[in-house]
Amino acid sequence: MRIAIIRSKLQEARRQLNDAIVDLVAKRVKRNIRELEGVLKKIIFCEEQKGVAVTLKVAEGIIEKAVQNPSKHVNEGVILKTVADFYNVSLEAMMGPNRRKEIVEPRQVAMYLLREISDLSYPYIGEKLGRDHTTAIHAHGKINEEINKNPSLNQKILTIRDMIFKS
Fold first, then answer.
1. Which of 76, 95, 100, 155 is the most exposed place for a label (fewest CB within 10 A)?
2. 3-state class of 5 per DSSP?
């Protein structure tokens, strides 16, 4: 089943991976579909950045890094503070009514990461950031879509994730 999901996600992204890598991902990534998508995005990003096909060894490293993180134990305060620090905005501005571009992107990234890392509910995420649950759903969907189109945003999110798990 996981192999079918991986192939479907690769087809959506218009990408191909070696069958050995697809099998490896399917065998090693078992928690949920979101984790599968995350690993695939990291592998694809690595491929795009280096301009060469990812080897089995590189894929193992990416999977190992992704699977070892105990995501559920990350405090949402750490996620919010890390995003605010990364974008050099205050937590108050990120949680406030401001709709300026320099605040909207960090807020949407924070909502995305709160959902991806801590698997919090949309109503909780919306409440935490002073928004409605539909705004949290929109932000997650928008960032999820943009990651595939915008390598710069993808790199920012990977950097923020690394900062979160190092703290």
1. 100
2. helix
Domains, the chain, ordered by start: 2-68 (1.10.8.60), 71-166 (1.10.1750.10)
Sole residue written with tokens 């995003």: 83
> 97-105 — which CB contacts under 8 Å span 24+ positions?
97/130
Q: What is the pTM of this model?
A: 0.61
Rounded Cα gap, residues 139 and 17, in angstroms: 29
Question: What is the C-alpha separation between 167 and 163, in angstroms, rounded?
Answer: 6
pLDDT digits (tens, 9 = 90+) for 77-103: 999 999 999 999 999 999 988 888 889
- Residue of 69, 59, 52, 73 lying closest to 26 (CA atoms): 59
H/E element holding 148? helix 133-149
| Cα–Cα distance list, 53 to 18, 21, 30, 114, 127 (Å) | 9, 11, 24, 31, 42
